[in-house]
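Re: Re: token formats

Sure, here are both.
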Amino acid sequence: MNSTHKPVAVVIGATSKWQSDGRNTKLAHGQELDDSDLPVGVRWGVGGAIAQKFAQEGFFVVLTTRTTSNAHYA
């Protein structure tokens, strides 16, 4: 349990998200894309969607990554 007394959900691998200037975007579209019209929430992949769902259900959500280079500390 945590200080908020909410159940905890740990989502591993939720840091890899779609990127408008990412390698696969350039491969699929031949160029970078303008993502300014997309809400931040829809840019996340399956891990992000799972995390958002648990958060909506009242869980304290912890996102982590399988790769250290993907970790961004806030």
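Second one below.
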Amino acid sequence: MSRYRLNWYELEESDSGDWLVKFPLGDVYSELVDHAFPNLTHIGWRPSTKSVNYTYIKGATSQEIEELGKYLQLLKHILVLRLNKNLENYFKDELDQCFALDFNLEDSETYTDVGQLEYEAKYNRDQQCANKLAKRLAGVCASHPNLNEVDCIAAVPGNPGKEFHLPDLLVEKMGEYLSRDTGLDLRKSRSTPQLKNLPLEEKIETLKDVFVLDDDVEGESILLVDDLYQSGTTMWTLARFLKENGADKVYGLVCVKSWRDTDNI
């Protein structure tokens, strides 16, 4: 499995003053918590029941516990996207973390609220829907300890000369909501066919050497924004390219995750 949502968590103060933290999918969420709060001191993550991990946090301030609670609450409302088994032979750790607002569909015939916004913004160029998406994306950034501190927020680039590319608009509007500069001199050197219709190996070959970067990203952390994450091939390929050019951390944030993890194989 490569997409996760935190269904529940416990954050309770013990009689000793330490704080118990417990949640399911411990291998996924313990790593996220440690990355978001590297200065928290705890006894180490320990198994409780199957896939459930817990720890006790020691010496934390009330502000640190409040921030941890807000972060865990955020993780209940967004998806965590990890490398799926179809890409394991091609990628490893190029993308540090990736998140989605929601799935695009509730079932085969019904869009989620976010999925409907993404559809209208992308295919009907609905400005109001695009603004709502950007506001939600910006809200995740502002609430996430790692994403809030990135050096750069950039769109996954579209084909050269493309008249309308939703990620560009989303990043521009996110900058307005977050009151910060956005964008990166990042582009494709050539047009690529609609990648979702290509077999996986052909898609990876198509993306080979397609990205061009004219900014210095040495040692920087970058947040890549896209509208749809299917297998993640584009996001992972671009993350690899940015790290080859010196980026320290690369995160991803997308509007929707498709139900399928695979491209055509």
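The chain has two domains: 3-77, 85-257. The chain is about 30% helix and 25% strand.
- S.
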